[in-house]
Amino acid sequence: MEIHINTGNGMDNKVTLEAWADAEIRRTLGRFSNDVRRIEVHLSDDNSGKGGADDKRCMIEAHVVGHAAVAVTHQAANMDEAFRGAEAKARRALDSAIGKLSDRRDHTSIRTEPEIL
Question: What is the pTM of this model?
């Protein structure tokens, strides 16, 4: 599973923030590694230092094999809360998407059943 971390302009401590986000994604979403090809994390400060309520934003996009990409966004007052909120939403969305895929994979078709004479 590839993980790409993107930080917006004006973000402080980009290298440290990217390393932390990568480690957290691997820890919390690593169980989806067989079904997810790539995860992209976009961290941004919407007001670039001007402040304001909920101006930190995290968007997580997961590219699931055999399924449309799953994307979630969370805004909060600080980057930690924005990241953790988006991470929780991504975990729930992936549980749902991959659960539906596995349900579909496990079903047998009546077309593959042997004919009864």
Answer: 0.79
